[in-house]
Design a protein that fits this description.
about 325 residues; alpha/beta; 11 helices; globular
């Protein structure tokens, strides 16, 4: 009798130990259990970088993990985006998606190095950035009409900067050229920050820049704002006309940014990331940061963001085709 009870105790103890080992195994493999990397496919200092660091800080706090940001500029965002597409689909490499690589570049480049639908799983749309047509100090054009007149007579042609071939500011410039019937020379950079720096220094003449990048310079009188690219005026620049109010129609363009993971990332990991990202973007800290930079919060779930990317691909493929723009 005693031997039987002892055997039961030992068996129970053994099962308990096995259960504890199992729990420990689950705990050790819980996501995330090592550093997470967010690839920003543009230079530091621009809106994609601002959002990447905001999300990294929020994820680190909410997931109790180390989250690092890696800037990988080049190829209009293609280089960093392609790098993320090739990463292991385990949730430890993420990428800040931008309208350029995910909606424009597939039509602009013969081989951008990735497929925005087949190679990625959406996590969440984060924010949008209205664009502003700004000119360098001393250019001498104080209205869109004045700029168009200058472009028609200026030799050599006026130059416009962008954050890279295929970026929203590049395509906005191409739309402007087509709608106004003028010629402009495109000068692409590896990110918004260096493009803005050269515009401020007078190396280029104008730019369709994100409000987040130029609002401080406009308020300081270092750049002149001629029009915004959205269909309605911006609260941060109430006295600046829309492009359509200035006579350039149709014209409604805004850049957007989201977070994505390589295709095949486990659904449970995507769900964890989506919840953490949503909590981050709805926080007071994010609200203050977005307000300070001019970015407008726009959240979408995984499914909604996936459908949105598909619709944007259709819209911008038509724009690229009609503009005749090509990066190859």
């Amino acid at each position: 009798m005693q031997r039987t009870n002892l055997a039961r105790v030992l068996r129970t103890a053994g099962l308990g130990a096995a259960a504890m080992l199992g729990l420990c195994g689950v705990a050790s493999s819980a996501y995330p259990d090592r550093p997470v990397k967010i690839v920003v496919p543009f230079a530091a200092g621009g809106p994609a970088d601002i959002l990447g660091r905001l999300v990294a800080h929020g994820l680190a706090s909410r997931l109790k993990a180390t989250v690092i940001v890696e800037n990988k500029p080049g190829g209009g965002g293609n280089i960093g985006t392609a790098q993320a597409a090739r990463a292991d689909a385990d949730g430890y490499t993420l990428v800040i998606g931008y309208i350029g690589p995910f909606a424009v570049n597939p039509s602009l480049y013969k081989n951008p190095g990735f497929d925005p639908i087949k190679d990625f799983s959406p996590v969440a749309l984060l924010a949008t950035s209205p664009l502003v047509l700004v000119t360098r100090p001393g250019l001498g054009a104080d209205s869109v009409a004045g700029l168009i007149d200058m472009a028609r007579t200026r030799k050599p042609a006026l130059t416009y900067a962008s954050g890279g071939v295929g970026s929203a500011n590049h395509l906005a410039g191409e739309l402007f050229k087509a709608a106004a019937g003028i010629d402009l020379v495109h000068v692409p950079y590896q990110g918004i920050a260096p493009a803005t720096t050269d515009l401020l220094g007078g190396q280029t003449d104008l730019m369709f820049n994100g409000i987040s990048s130029v609002l401080p310079h406009i308020k300081a009188g270092k750049l002149q704002a001629l029009a915004v690219t959205t269909s309605s005026r911006l609260a941060s620049l109430p006295g600046v006309k829309t492009m359509e109010e200035a006579g350039v129609k149709p014209f409604d363009v805004a850049a957007w940014f989201g977070l994505l993971a390589p295709r095949g990332t486990p659904p449970a990991v995507l769900d964890t990331l989506e919840r953490a990202v949503r909590d981050t973007m709805m926080s007071d800290e994010a609200s203050q940061r977005l307000a300070a930079t001019g970015l407008e919060r726009r959240l979408m779930s995984q499914a909604e963001f996936g459908k949105f990317i598909g619709s944007e691909l259709k819209v911008w493929s038509a724009v690229v085709r009609n503009s005749g723009a090509s990066a190859d």
